[in-house]
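Curious: explain these tokens?
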Amino acid sequence: MNRVFLTCLLLAAFSGAPLCADPGEISGRTGRAEDAGVADRPERSGPQAGGDLPEIAGPSDLPALPALPPPTSEPSIAAWAGADPAKLRSGWKPMAGSMPVVARAVSGRDVLEMPCNFRSTEIERASWDLEVGLDLAAARGLELLFYSPDPSPVSHFSLYFRSGGGWYAATFHPGSAEGWSRIAIDRESARVEGRPAGWGSVDAIRISAWRGSDADTRFYVADLAVRGAAAPVAVIRADAPAAAGREGAREIDTYCARVARYLGECGVAHVVIRDSDVNAKRLGPRKVAILPYNPSMSAAAAEALVSFVERGGKVVAFYHLPAALLPAVGLEAGEYVRQDRPGRFAEIRPLAGAPSGFPARVRQRSWNIQELRAVEGRSRAVAVWHDAEGESTGRAAVLLSPAGAFMTHVLLDDDEAAQRALLLSLVGHFHAGALAEALEYAVERAGRFGPYQGVREALGEIGRVAAESAGARERLERVRGRLGKARAMGAAGERIPEALDLAGEVRSELIDLYCSLQKPLAGEHRAFWCHSAFGVEG
């Protein structure tokens, strides 16, 4: 069979935007939550609740389930809700026409078997509800292990969260039928239906399998847990303007999402918390709170952040810092400065004493800045703005104190690699664990491309092919040596920013080596694709 080998497309896909999620992790997307109550409405067709249910093969007819992956470190929903695990296990109620849930034990862990009886019914979906009180306002969402020996009769799966008079909904698709997949549902990507009372008041969960064909199947769920419950970094999202329908809500969402994305691309564990949900308890486990663009904030949220700083927490803010936080962070109000000509604020360069890993140059064409003034003995400027000609403007770009950092404009995306590094250097200055996380992620990502799920697999498989070539073997040994050096630097806690750069170089070298080892096939056609409508640069 002929094979189309899209060389340029392959390289672009391998060396482009960072991969944020683990290969087995599937982020939640939006879904539907049409029902207003839990197990309180019959399906549009099919047997009614309490009626006879069609037979479906029992658990004993199934082969043994695949071995479960190691348990998650995240808290179970029972632990998070302070509920009895046995009651939750038996609390799943089938909606009209659906079969009951069967609890099974696999390697000493609870597994829920959820049968989908599509063959002898006309139900639109198989669904089950669990009533449980959950505060997810300071969590990323939920995660679970999922397995189905045959997911093909299901068009898609949905997870719903009931809150007040509305629902939050997310759709997911299993990775494969070969083993367990870790499904991650991010509440920031969930769809809103009705008028939910907020993520802090989730009182029921629904799992649905939507009919794709008239065939029976089963799926299994284990380790239903709360994601990001103890994430050390919190991104505080301003929601008052959006709630009031004021202008600027879209910009707030953009800058908040960008900061969260940069953290994810660096592998730093974080959670997004709306400022209306901020309180001492939800900030409790955090080490750093980031304000990506918070033009307004309630007095209660500002007071909670002040208390957070007084307890040793750190604040990293962009463009706006609530007046109540100025004394706590060690800064004073300054002036708003609009550029007097295009390119006035074009680049950020560090000064002596900037945090480790701060980029030598950050290209960012800002159109204005909001200056704050350093307080002698408490804070100082660690980076300044330069204009498009490379001349210093003398105006601070980043100020630093023992309690936090402030950048005088929002974080843009015109130099993403450097802007990610700037953010990581500020967060890592206050939370060294973030740098260690980033290095571990970068090392693993070095081998996560093409058919490979991680660096160990990539080194092994490429090594098997490279054995036929002395030159390739030498290149691979150099890659192994550089990777070992990056790991050693991380283990020693030294020069981690340099180790991060090294891990990035290893990834490029591995991809190049992988591509060079591909052998053409008979009848192969090689094509080139340029993504830009303007052609190849230069």
Notes: The first helix runs from residue 7 to 15. Confidence is low (pLDDT under 50) at residues 1-60.
